[in-house]
Amino acid sequence: MNKQTIKIPAELKIAAKQAYLNAYAPYSKFHVGAAALTTSGTIVQGCNVENASYGLTVCAERNCISHAVIKGEQSFQMIVIYTEQERMTPPCGACRQVIAEFFEQSAPVIAFNHKDQQQVWSVAELLPDAFTPKDLLDI
Question: Among residues 61, 73, 104, 125, which one is catalytic?
């Protein structure tokens, strides 16, 4: 993957920004929107949803992937994460594991912000040696 040449499809950026606007983050004030492109070409969205019991908070990336699974989609091309932070924000550890479950190791994970700056990682870069369904084959 050539990180310099990855262009985020405009529809994916719009979807991530729209999801960001729906984030429920009254405690952290850290709003996040995500949009993923499935291998069938469908765009799905997710936003973070906080809870007063902080451990029950669900991140935008996991909500996005769950939304896709509800629609019958289980294979993805890329995921885009939008925040209005100055520095690019990678997915948390739990999200990295869920992304590794559904995305190829070479799939791009792209963060961008309100200044249209972006950073790209592969799934493998975010979670090297991930535990995936392939690891269950010997059971």
Answer: 61
